[in-house]
Amino acid sequence: MPTRTISRDLKDRIPVLFFEKGYAVNQICTVLGVKKTLVYKTLDLYTTFGTSYNPHARRGGRPRKLTDVDVKFVEALLEQSHTIYLDEIQEKLLTQRGVSVTMATVFNTLRRLHFTRKCVSIRALERNDLLRSAFMNKIADLVPDPNMLMFVDESAKDDRTSGRRKGWSLKGMRCIQRRAFVRGKRYSILPVITLDGIIAHDIMEGSVTTERFLSFLEEHVVNLSQRGFNRGSDNEDGEDAGLYDSNGLSEVDRELARLRRKLEVKYQNDHNTGYTYIDPETAESYELTPIMMKEWARAMYDGVATVERPVSLGKVTFHPAKRQVALHPSRIAAGVNLPHAQGAGATDIGHLANMITTLIG
What we know:
The chain has helices spanning 8-20, 25-32, 36-49, 68-80, 86-96, 103-112, 129-142, 210-221, 224-227, 251-267, 290-301, 330-334, 348-360, and strands at residues 151-152, 155-157, 187-194, 197-205, 276-278, 285-287.
């Protein structure tokens, strides 16, 4: 009869029962239902390696057909092209490495390297990185706390929306369902969602137009008419409009965006869209928030920091409540962004109102 395979978690209990619980070998055999030879061998491995198995043991069987160099070649192919097909990897192994393997071998190699097939996260090829960095700087300046962010998006339904594209039926038979071919009436919903969930919404018949959207903001988010906001006002900082380029960026804005882009390239995480800085002295890792990225770029602009080394993370520059304004230095003297400032902007609701009026103006 073939030998019975003992799971690793069962072997892990042997050192625990022997060293911590004080069980004898005979008692361990009775409790776990194993033989003495296994108990003695496991205890010997635990004494030598600190584990219930030999970490240096190699798996038996035929040698792998792909060498370490071939595996590195496959990893390089995946790094170069994330959407490459298995047959393309197979072909490149044959033409460039001279190795003929099956599709199953390629698939098992990817699984052994912990690669999984998933949906592609698309980033626009036409994206302007400079404008994106400038926008992130502006958002970090307007929103010191993520709880102040509100997101509004239109969603709609009609008589055909609830129809499902796939269903179940017996093999060889069609899956038939009677449903409307005419769309019917269209209803739109405008929800406002924050970190606390949906805080306001409006349901209307038909599509959402610009007038309906602005009316929704005035009635359900912030009453712009009562605040007497003038959408045709001059630049909020009183700056000369001639100093801005065709993209609406001043010279300072462009330079800050360029510096921020350098930080984004250097500290971009591989597993998500965030940014992380690791202190080389303390080995502490810091998640770089939009405010921290903006203030780091400001510190680089002022000549007190570099791409490799920021100012001390405990100083004022990286404190959201005591930050300096990066995009519009003229606001510093006015103090409109300080937490103790008076007026509507001193509260979260007032700050949100200022944000909305700025964005839709």
